[in-house]
Amino acid sequence: MILGLYEAHLPVRNLKRSIEYYKKLGLEFSHSHEDKLAFFWIEKGKGWLGLWETDKVELEYHPSIRHIAFQVSLEGLKKSVVWLNERGCEPREAFGFEPIEPFVMAHHGMAHAKIHFNDPDGNSLELICKIPNRKNITNRMYLSEWEKLNEDVYP
């Protein structure tokens, strides 16, 4: 029945400012409605992000709300700190990892590499990609440490 996620929404204080911010991230603007709502394609024709202008942005952050994770390639993720900084988007600490490079959260049989940052309204954004975990590692570590640990598996 469910085939994927089609849309997600975030609150923003200033829609015009947010439109420019998300364009810097490379999302394609789709349309706006009544100057209070804007849609961006995350993947054209498959899923989009809605930004709602509201004065209710001060809602305290919790991972279950005000968070979007964008899927990227591993090669893209490796360049993410520089890429974000070039766009005026500052990576931030997450899960105890300083934003010096992406980090890996591994679970039984799977792992994800990621980096976190915030939009101008404090909405939590993330760049993430799934990576193989053939050694069944369950630790968290920086991506460079992961690669060294897995040199024999992923040359």
Molecular structure report:
- There is one protein chain.
- It is built from four helices and ten strands; from the N terminus they run βαββββααβββββα.
- The protein has 155 residues and is of the alpha+beta class.
- The chain has two domains: 1-58, 2,3-Dihydroxybiphenyl 1,2-Dioxygenase, domain 1, CATH 3.10.180.10; 66-155, 2,3-Dihydroxybiphenyl 1,2-Dioxygenase, domain 1, CATH 3.10.180.
- Strands 5, 6, 7, 8, 9 and 10 form a six-stranded mixed beta sheet that branches. The protein has a four-stranded mixed beta sheet with strand order 1-4-3-2, with helices on one face.
- The model has no long low-confidence stretch (mean pLDDT 92).
Provide a compact summary of the structure.
This protein has helices spanning 15-24, 74-78, 80-86, 143-149, and strands at residues 7-12, 28-33, 37-43, 47-53, 67-71, 91-92, 103-107, 110-118, 124-131, 140-142.
Descriptive key words:
single chain, 155 residues, alpha+beta, 2,3-Dihydroxybiphenyl 1,2-Dioxygenase, domain 1, 2 domains, six-stranded mixed sheet, four-stranded mixed sheet, 10 strands, elongated
> How many domains make up the coordinates?
2
Gap between N and C termini, in Å? 39 Å
How much of the sequence lies in strands comes to: 35-45%
Question: How would you characterize the largest beta sheet?
Answer: 6 strands, mixed
> What is the helix content?
10-25%
The CATH first-level class of the largest domain comes to Alpha Beta
CATH architecture of the largest domain: Roll
Q: Give the tally of β-strands.
A: 10
Could you tell me the radius of gyration in angstroms? 17 Å
Q: Mean of the pLDDT scores?
A: 92
Summed up, the helix count is 4
Quaternary form = single chain
pLDDT < 50 runs, ≥5 residues? none
Class based on secondary structure composition and strand pairing: alpha+beta
Q: What is CATH's topology name of the largest domain?
A: 2,3-Dihydroxybiphenyl 1,2-Dioxygenase, domain 1
Helix and strand string, N-terminal first? EHEEEEHHEEEEEH
The global form is elongated
